[in-house]
Specification:
Layout (H helix, E strand, L loop, with lengths): L19 H19 L4 H24 L5 H17 L6 H17 L9
Helix pairs in contact: 1-2, 1-4, 2-3
Bound molecules: MU-OXO-diiron.
C-alpha cells in the first residue's frame, strides 16, 4: 500500500500514533530527511538521519517489548533493514535515494507503526 508523501516534507497530524514521545521522534526523522533533501551534499546530515532514526527505533522497540506487542520481531527486522540501507548512503545523495527515504518513512508510520496504536 502506498501513502501520499507530504510536500513540503513535514510531519502532520495524519501521522500521529498517539504516543507523544514517538510522535516527537517521528517529527525529528521527518526533519532529518527534509534537511538531507535540502542539502544532499552534506555527509553529516546523513549521519544525523541514521543516529536520530536508530535512537527512535531503540525507543519504539523498547515500548513494544515492554508491552509484549505481538509483532515486535517482524517490526524490528523492518527497522534493521532500513538502517542497513541508510548506512550505505553516501553524500551527495541522489534524488532516488531521497525519494525512497521519504516514501519509506511515510509508509512505515502509516502501514506498520499504526498497527501498535492503543497496544503499547
Ligand atoms: Fe516509528 Fe517503527 O518506526
Amino acid at each position: 500500500m502506498s501513502f501520499e508523501v507530504p510536500e513540503p516534507y513535514v510531519w502532520d497530524e495524519s501521522f500521529r500514533v498517539m504516543y507523544d514521545n514517538i510522535d516527537s521522534e517521528h517529527k525529528a526523522i521527518f526533519e532529518c530527511i527534509f534537511n538531507c533533501a535540502k542539502d544532499p551534499k552534506s555527509a553529516p546530515l546523513i549521519t544525523k538521519l541514521y543516529d536520530v532514526t536508530a535512537d527512535h527505533f531503540t525507543d519504539e522497540e523498547g515500548m513494544m517489548v515492554k508491552a509484549n506487542y505481538e509483532d515486535v520481531t517482524n517490526h524490528k527486522k523492518i527497522h534493521n533493514d532500513f538502517l542497513a540501507k541508510i548506512k550505505t548512503l553516501k553524500a551527495p545523495l541522489d534524488a532516488a535515494s531521497v525519494a525512497w527515504a521519504k516514501q519509506w518513512l511515510v509508509g512505515h508510520i502509516k502501514g506498520i507503526d499504526f498497527k501498535y496504536k492503543g497496544k503499547l
